[in-house]
Amino acid sequence: MENQQLHPKIKLLFRHRSMEMGGVEKVLLDLLENLPRDIFDITLLLSIYQGELRTQVPKDVELITIQRGREDMSENPLVRSFQLLKRSLILWYYRKYPKALYKKYLKKEFDIEIAPGYSDFDSVLDSPANSRKIGWFHTDVSYDPNQKRVLGRIDRLKRFDWTIFGSRQTRDVIKDLYNIEYPKSSVIYNAIKIKEVQARFTEFPVDYEVRPVFSSMGRLHSRKNYHTLMKIHKRLLDEGYIHSIAVIGGGGEMANLKAQAKELDVEKTFLLLDTQINPYPYIKNSDYFVLPSESESYPLTIGEVMGLDIPIISTNVGGIPEMIDHRIDGYLVNPDETSIYEGMKLFLTDHSFTENIRSNTRKGIEKFDNQKIYDDVTAIFVSQYELK
Fold first, then answer.
1. pTM of the complete model
2. Using 50, 70 and 90 to split pLDDT, how confident is the model at 1?
3. Is there a cis peptide before residue 311, judged by omega within 30 degrees of 0?
4. What domains can be seen in the chain, in order of their start residue?
5. What's the sign of the alpha-carbon dihedral 157, 159, 163, 169?
6. I need a surface site. Which of 51, 232, 248, 355 has the fewest CB within 10 A?
7. Cβ distance 310 to 282 under 8 Å?
8. Mean pLDDT score of the chain, rounded to an integer?
């Protein structure tokens, strides 16, 4: 890449809504931290300065925010409601008139604008700037029943100058279901920061009352299938297989899951731990990990858990079979109650099997090559700049 020194730094603008804890946000932060500064001048524009990860943006990244987050609003309910309404109106105005947004907040021109997830597609595609547009897509569309929404997203993908898919399956399933291909695209896996995870799991002690423990981590959404996992948990307990489950994550399904746990009388063994800035001590001090999702792309969690030497049961969806070798460094199941139940029962009864998986994870993490990921992303950004 010697010729890259012949031109000024390439000006990148990442657009995103906010920094609540989530997979896209973690991928975004990783890119912001690791893209080479001798090649790129990086700016992040957040619509809302909100979320657990908002303070983790690297200091040498120019951070521009449009509106304040809930964390910075009044505790008075009436005032807070007014602030939220005002915020919504201002953001609506800038979505409708993007030229006004760019004139007010962005004082320089950008070579490339990047949408890290589908929620940012319109923000980047509607940009008035003379820039190359790149979209990232991490979603398995086969499990979304809303066909209008799916078609809208995959149609927007066509408008980008380049699209990056988070797994082979994410791109292939669009071709299989809709016969749509993206010649201007590539597959780049998300980087998994295993060494950082391994350094953080000792930050504080975690002790569970009921063992063995299955940990799990994910945003509480219906497609994450935690309502099914709770039914399986109750079924196993009723059959005499004592264990507990610790779920790390927050989201819209929290109230429903709490009500279900009360109804099934499993509140003391199905632990809803909410979002945690450092979830790794909870995972490392568990015995097994279970991911019951109905859909995923290429979840960082799988690699992180493997780096902690915890045997994994995961649904065989999205790009997960590109990460786990079945019955070698993990165990794959179908995203239904019977299949997940049988996998968990196997883990609870065959300790030699789980210990074999545990030992194999140490070699399994060698498949995650982060530097190649950063090099591939850099090469795409440079090539798009040269086409500008």
1. 0.81
2. very low
3. no
4. 2-191+369-387 (3.40.50.2000), 194-367 (3.40.50.2000)
5. positive
6. 355
7. no
8. 95
